[in-house]
Amino acid sequence: STVTKKNLGQADAQQREMGYLMGALGLGFLLVYMLLASLFDNLLYPLIIQLAQPQALVGALLALVLTDKALNIVSFIGVITLVGLVGKNAILLVDYTNTLRSRGRTREEALTEAGPIRLRPILMTSIAVVLGMLPVALAIGRGSEFRETLGITIIGGILLSTFLTLLVIPCSYTILDDASNGLGRLIRSIRVAILLPQCRV
Questions:
Q1: Is the pLDDT of residue 120 over 80?
Q2: Is the Cβ–Cβ distance between 44 and 175 less than 8 Å?
Q3: Which residues have C-beta within 8 Å of that of residue 58, sequence separation ≥ 6?
Q4: pLDDT of residue 143
Q5: What is the pLDDT of residue 26?
Q6: What is the mean pLDDT of the chain?
Q7: CA-CA distance, 86 to 107, in Å (whole number)?
Q8: CA 109, CA 83: separation in Å to the nearest integer?
Q9: Predicted TM-score of the model (pTM)
Q10: pLDDT beyond 80 at 184
């Protein structure tokens, strides 16, 4: 039938385009990391910030499941969009934590103080994105059913990422900061072990 041929055509097009979309998703992760690394002049903090992106992907897929929508090309474009959107909350939190530490606060004090202070701008920006995508998710307007899944994935990813950012990011910041300090001590001890015999000679 005509409907069956149309569905098969859409499935074939989605299968052909999925490789390009996965490549675009991977390139998005890489470009965001490079941009954050140059912004913070550090290789560690971008990893902490990008931990918000898997949370957003889970939220997007969960939103599709709850609304009984399929993961198609349009919704995958929403997933790619989330790679750039969800980092804003973690950037606000990590940047202010670093600012407080530069002012003499301990790591735990900085994380405890940064969360409540940055909660308001995090909520404001997230609510603005959700409200902006709400007409798209509700399929308001002519031909909007085609873009419906785009709004659903973005809203789901933003909501879950916002709720988890204040929990996951401080924990990951602590763990990776300890790992960075331990790696730094190991590198310094190796350097001392290499240079000490040379100094004796």
A1: yes
A2: no
A3: 160
A4: 67
A5: 86
A6: 82
A7: 24
A8: 29
A9: 0.80
A10: no
Gap between the Cα atoms of 4 and 50, Å rounded: 41
Q: Dig out the tokens for 35 from the structure.
A: 């941009």
Are the beta carbons of 86 and 68 closer than 8 angstroms?
no
**Nearest residue to 135 (alpha-carbon basis) of 125, 144, 143:** 144
pLDDT tens-digit map of 142-159: 767 778 888 899 999 999
Q: What is the mean pLDDT of residues 165-182?
A: 84
Two tokens, residue 95: 């940047």
Count of CB atoms situated within 10 Å of the CB of 152:
24
For the purposes of burial, counting CB atoms within 10 Å of the CB of 9, is it exposed (0-12), middle (13-18) or buried (19 or more)? exposed
C-alpha gyration radius of the chain: 22
CA–CA separation, 96 and 173 (whole Å): 13
Query: Residue 145 carries which DSSP code?
Result: G
Three-class SS state of 85: helix
Q: Which amino acid is at 92?
A: L
